[in-house]
Amino acid sequence: MRPEIIVVGAGGHAKVCIELLQAQGDKVAYCVGNPDSVDSCLGIEVLKSDDHLQALRTEGYERVFIAIGSNAVRKKLATKTTEMGFQLVNAISPAAIVSPSASLGLGIAVMAGSVINAEASIGDLCIVNTGATIDHDCVLGLGVHVAPQCALAGNVHIGSLSFIGVGSKIIPEIYIGESAVVGAGSVVISNIDSAVTVVGVPAKALHKI
Ligand SMILES: CC(C)(COP(=O)(O)OP(=O)(O)OC[C@H]1O[C@@H](n2cnc3c(N)ncnc32)[C@H](O)[C@@H]1OP(=O)(O)O)[C@@H](O)C(=O)NCCC(=O)NCCS
Predict the structure, then answer these.
(1) Comparing C-alpha atoms, which of 112, 137, 123 is closest to residue 78?
(2) Greatest pairwise CA separation for the chain in angstroms
(3) Which one of 137, 150, 162, 168 has the lowest number of neighbouring Cβ atoms within 10 Å?
(4) How far away, in angstroms, is 175 Cα from ligand 1 center?
(5) Is the CB of 128 inside a 6 Å radius of any atom of ligand 1?
(6) Which one of 72, 89, 106 terminates a domain?
(7) Does residue 192 line the site of ligand 1, with CB under 6 A?
(8) Do residues 58 and 117 share a domain?
(9) How far is the CA of 185 from the centre of ligand 1 (A)?
(10) So which residues are the catalytic ones?
(11) Rounded mean pLDDT for each run of 10 residues along the chain, 209 residues in total
(12) Domain membership flag for residue 204
């Protein structure tokens, strides 16, 4: 089996993830993009279709990182690649601070300057983006994206595939449902239902604004 990693994605988020993987000592063999992708991403050849994945698996590659910002697409491609027999790897910056008592899922990105504190739980395929802080006892479900410079206070629960926009703040003990969206710069002081978009300070459902 080949130890090099296949990165699915070839955009800006993929660039950051490739550098995280390289910083932890991994080598990236190829990116897999789509027909509109660039030819190379940080000097790594981009194969321009998911159709290449099966051939790469047959060639002996078994480690994959899904570097796609969209939560739903990331989940779909993770399912597709794991069904082919790929294993999801993590990309964790050496400049992140991760508590030894935190639990981490598979296929996660934890970027520079982020902090994951005591007994927090980070689900599979989550993104903890640059400078985001996830405090004690927080629980992030599958495929949650916490954008740069967000601050989650203690014991915040976020349901699968939800997105927390750049610079948002969430007070302690808040529950957010699945596939919810918190707009950039929001301050969340009450629970949020699934599939709702909220914005503002304090955050309110978008349709009420
Ligand atoms: C919340 C968000 C998803 C809404 O996007 P959208 O559905 O396209 O909404 P629109 O841009 O049409 O805006 C609808 C209304 O909400 C307001 N609004 C949108 N985002 C807002 C925000 N973050 N805070 C306050 N008001 C906001 C708009 O001003 C607009 O108000 P109006 O109807 O009075 O003109 C988007 O604005 C946002 O904040 N995205 C976060 C992006 C991000 O953090 N990316 C990080 C990537 S790592």
Answers:
(1) 123
(2) 54
(3) 137
(4) 21
(5) no
(6) 89
(7) no
(8) no
(9) 10
(10) 136
(11) 97 98 98 97 97 97 98 98 98 98 98 98 98 98 98 98 98 98 98 97 81
(12) no
